[in-house]
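Input:
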Amino acid sequence: MNDARTVEIAGNENLLFLTDEQLRKGIEAMFFAYRGFTADPDKILDDQKYGRAHHRAVHFIHRTPGTTVNNLLSVLGVTKQSLNRVLRRLISDGLVESKVGTQDKRERNLQLTVSGESLEQKLSNAQRRRMRTAYRAAGPEAVAGFRKVLEEMMDRDLRRHFNAPKEGRE
Amino acid sequence: MNDARTVEIAGNENLLFLTDEQLRKGIEAMFFAYRGFTADPDKILDDQKYGRAHHRAVHFIHRTPGTTVNNLLSVLGVTKQSLNRVLRRLISDGLVESKVGTQDKRERNLQLTVSGESLEQKLSNAQRRRMRTAYRAAGPEAVAGFRKVLEEMMDRDLRRHFNAPKEGRE
DNA sequence: TTGGAAAGTCAACAAGACTGACATAAAATC
DNA sequence: GATTTTATGTCAGTCTTGTTGACTTTCCAA
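Output:
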């Protein structure tokens, strides 16, 4: 971690000289950290026989209430058939409500029911707890760096969803 | 990102005050970044009809040549039956070699063949390229912070594998 | 020497991704 | 008004990758 050397170049630009070994460490850190990151919600979901796909749907419906199926598809990056199976179950279990669109009646507006919100809270509390603990242990400068690198690692077209906090539609 | 305030507390300890919104951003950053992180290898794997599980096996066999199935299991965190299916295919495709252990004949020592190494190179080159680009764009301090937060986010018992670079066994 | 534990294999099943085809309703366009 | 496009939903089939359960081989210790 602290063996990545930096060199000052004319001006105030600096380059990182990264060995394959340092990059491998970063790659594995990503792998192990993501496992930790999903571990707590996974445990909760398993009780109700849901999977990560349900978690993702619930998360983004919570984040953007009234979002359409198409919107959700482009954020999640899965096929409609795949999402449909998940949504169907969430709807029939009474966690998600699907209402015919007001302007465009072809669309469906999705939102969480009371029990949907309650599951979302359980899941995000668990995930936030871990994130908060990690942030606190690492300190504020580390957090800023963490966010910066993650953002650079995203695909360009996904970064769009990331930077659109309150309305999913472009 | 830069709205996380820090407060100096008696001594030189500082606390982060994190709003749910800031934590949510971190959670989504993790989600989108991980997608980017796996996107390039996924494309390569798809050509040869392999999945992420094959990638992980190839990666860790490369990292720790001669490792046993059991070792690999504890790193990957899946059941031996699940891993076995993946290994069986890699072996029959001639990417991995499995040799009966010399001391303990119950064990199998795994290593990549020449074509296994070649696939590993293709995959890790793609992944390193993205990681390197992100690191360069974010800068050295950001990278240090990134690594610090990721390490804090891992499960304790997984951190062990992370910090054991050249031999998988405890 | 025998009985249990450990390492690995085989079989069967489930979740969740995928493709492809098709249906319906509403909106947009010609 | 007729046609095409869009948004959504569904059925069927495939693939990867996770699971549990049952089994073999090997090792070790009582």
